[in-house]
Amino acid sequence: MAFPICPRLRQAVGRTLLAGLAIALSACQTLPYADDRTTPPVVEVADASPAREALNARTYDAAVRWVTRRFYKRDFGGVDWAGETAERRAAAVAQPDDASFYGALNATLDLLKDPHTTAVTPTRYRERLRDRREARPVIGFGMRVVDGQYIVTEVRADAPAAGKIQRGWRLESIDGQPISEGLSSKSQPEHELIFTDADDQSRTVILPEVDLPPHLGDMERRADGVVILSFDYFAPATRDWFLARMRELVEDPPPGIIVDLRDNGGGLLRAVGATLSPFFAERQPYAYVEYGYLPRLPDRTRPWRRGYDGPVAVLISGASASGAEVFAATMQETGRGRLFGDRTRGAVVASRDVVLPDGGELGIGVRAFRSGRGAVLEGVGVTPDHEVALNAADLRRGVDPVVEAAAAALLKQPRLVADDANPG
Q: Which is more confident, 291 or 267?
C-alpha cells in the first residue's frame, strides 16, 4: 500500500512563493507540485439554509466515522472520542457556511492532538489539487521569515520577478497592505510590491501575474562546485525531477551535494525511498509502518547500478516534516550524510486522505511509523548533527549560513568508496 506520509501538515511558516491568486504568507507549502488525482465536485448549497445544515450533518458524520474506524491510536490518545463528537455535533451542524463549519470540524479533530488528522474545505482542496498539476498565475519569488522579517531567498527564473528583485530584499507591503502572517491578495493583472533592498533603500516594483506550470524543484551549482537540490514535497513528479537531476550528477559528479529539505512537508513514502536510492550501494531499510500484530517488514531503497558516492549534506528545519524527516533520519542513521540546521517537526505518521460528502478532504493518521533503524520520530523529530541558526542580517546580505556551513563541511570530506556507502 502506498501511504502518504503527512501530505498537508499544519506547519510553521517557512518559505513562501508568492502567487497571484492567493498570496498566503502562512501557507506551509511554497511551490506547487504535480498530482494526478481527480478533482472532486463541490456541493453548492445556500448559506444558513436547511440544505446547508443537512450537508453539514452528512459531512460531520462521515468525518467522525472515518476517524473512528481508522485513527491509529485506538484509545484516541485518551480522548472520549464518541462522547466529544456527539456533544459537539449540533454546534458544528448549525454553522451557516463552509468556513465556519470546517472551523468547528477541525476544532473537534484537534482534540486528537495529531497534526495529520485535519480537514480542508472543498474550495481549498480544489485549489490545492489545481495548483499541483495546472499552470496558475504567479509572481514567482520565495521568502523566508526570520526575526519577523520577510526576506527574499529565491527568484524563479521564468517568472515576472526574475531580474526585477534580488535575494536579500525585505518585502514591506503588497498592493498597499503591510506584510503580516496570513495576508492574502486577490488575483489581478499586476501587483505593486515595496521592498527594502540590502542597502536599506526602498524599492517599488510592479509585477504582473503570469500563468506558469508547477515548479518542481531547484538545482544550483555553486562556484565551489557543490550542488544544492531543493524541493518541497515527495510526489511522483518531484521524485522524477530529483532522479533526473541525480542522473546528471552521477555523470558529472560534484564535490558534494546538499539536499535542502527545510521547507519539505512530506509526501508519499515510496517517493522518499526512491529519492534515497541513488545514495546507497545496497538495499537500505528506511521505514517501518506498523500493521498491528503483523511482523514488521521494512521498506527498502532500490540502489542504482551506478549511484552517487560523494559527500552529502541534508538541510532541515522546524518546517521539515514527515517524509522529509524519514529522508533525513535515514541519511543520519546510516552515516551517509550529515544534517545541518534545526530540529525537524516530529510529525511522522502514515496517513490516509478521504473525500468528504461536500467535496472537502479529510486526512487521518492511520499507522504508527518508525525509521529504518527502528526509531520513533513522531513527537521527537530529527536533531541535526550541526545546529546552525538563520539570522535576518545574513539573509539580507544574500548569505544563507546553513548552506555555507554544509558546503564548507562537504568540501573537507573525502569521497566515499563503495563499501562505505552502506555502513550497516
A: 267
